[in-house]
Amino acid sequence: MDIPGHESREWSELVEGKKVIALQFLATRILVGRLVTRYKMEPSPAVKTESIGELHNFFAKNIRLPAVQADLNAIFGGRLT
Amino acid sequence: MNQVLFDVCEVSRMIKEGKSLVLAGDEALLKQLPAGTWIGGTIPYFMGDKGGEFTKQKVYVTVLPADASRQTVRVYDEKTIHDIYCKAPEQGFSIVIMPAASKTHEVFSLKAPTFSQFATRPLIGWISGVDLKDLGKVAPKVVNGKTGEALGNAAVVMEASLPANKAAIVSIANIFEMGSGDSLTFAQDGFSATDVFVNGEKRNFVDYLLAKKIDTRLPLVADYFGARVNTSFQTVDQAAKRVDFYAPVFKGVEYKVAQPVANYVESFEKAISARLGDQIAFSCNCILNYLYSGLEGKKTGNVTGPITFGEVAYQLLNQTMVYMTIENI
């Protein structure tokens, strides 16, 4: 499964807290929860960029796990293969 | 159910056989063990194969899974703990133990979510403690099995690699649900709070807890995209008008007091699969669950482990069972 690029709208919406997504994997839940809270406290473009980078790195490192693939697909509306 | 509590002679034999171990027990026992590939932490409370047990005569033994290789013991302190994720194996797991109330414990608790590579690699573990009768008199310790050194301010970590077709999965079993009460937030990160924002309105937290007659055996619960993360009350200091916690509260995170639990053992059995115990490579549960639920002599399904002063599943948690399974992928 390919991981969509940093510029994808879904990453932004996730970090901005605009999407409430049912996530499966514990680490995804904790990381996304933390990044959304951080952005809420400090809603700057720099924080958003940094947070998207952190998410991308997380998925790149764990994409071999089925639950992580499911989480990524949930973030991207089930469009990924 | 397999035996998990052993006497010092039996544990010494396992170490001499070259097994890689994660140990929990009284400091006097851990200090008698020979050098080897092991880490340990002090605690005399356990969920053993016969149920909840207090003992200073036995050591709880976790033998690393057969698939694990390249076992490495690392030691961090408060100045180096930020490397715990960076140095963890890319494909494997890390089990950490830190002494309660140590500077390393404090820094990890407050800062882990900001560490480089946070949550990108499996990290699980626990906070070591002491006999509750010795609180304030005896310091919790961790032991580096490579040297036998007992440390009052450090994190000892057992790292291991796994083959490409295996993965370590860190999970939690939290029987507490968010209650339906007020939304509570805090102005800053910390192990204590004077003020709280109740549905956005600033109040003294002690006054609030007393006025609402809150049962502080119930933790504060935060929802991290479906993961319920607990923060437990330690003390409500009416004179100082300050509330202390066993884990930090974080600025910007919404908390609610947990719903009461009618029967811990039943709730726990519902929270985990009946067959899970056989698949677990490591687990631990919280001393507050042990105390408040009267777990001495009772079983929590077929899951065993040390009873701890805090749990780690990527970050510090309270009143939660954490466990790790090794799964085929």
Describe the 3D structure:
The complex is a heterodimer of chains A (81) and B (329). Chain A is mainly α. Helices cover 63% and strands 0% of the residues of chain A. The longest helix of chain A is centred in the middle third of the chain and has 18 residues, at 45-62. The termini of chain A are close together. Chain B has 329 residues and is mainly beta. Chain B has two domains: 5-172 and 265-328, no CATH class; 184-257, no CATH class. The mean pLDDT of chain B is 95.
Short note summarizing the structure:
Chain A is mostly helical and 81 residues long.
Topology, element by element:
The complex is a heterodimer of chains A (81) and B (329).
Chain A: H1 9-15, H2 26-41, H3 45-62, H4 66-75
Helix pairs in contact in A: 2-3
Chain B: E1 5-6, H1 8-16, E2 21-25, H2 27-30, E3 38-42, E4 45-48, E5 51-54, E6 59-63, E7 69-76, E8 92-99, H3 103-111, E9 123-128, E10 142-144, E11 149-151, E12 155-161, E13 166-173, E14 184-185, E15 190-193, E16 195-198, E17 201-204, H4 205-211, E18 220-224, E19 227-231, E20 233-237, E21 242-249, E22 255-257, H5 264-271, H6 276-279, E23 280-286, H7 287-292, E24 305-308, E25 311-313, E26 315-317, E27 321-328
Largest sheet of chain B: 6 strands, mixed
Distance between the termini of chain B: 26 Å
Tell me the total number of β-strands of chain B: 27
What is the subunit organization of this protein? heterodimer
The number of helices of chain A is: 4
Q: In this structure, how is the largest beta sheet of chain A organized?
A: none
Biggest interchain interface, per-side counts:
A-B, 26 and 28 residues
What sequence of helices (H) and strands (E) makes up the elements of chain A? HHHH
The backbone outline of chain A, from C-alpha atoms, is: globular
- Low-confidence stretches of chain A are none
Low-confidence stretches of chain B: none
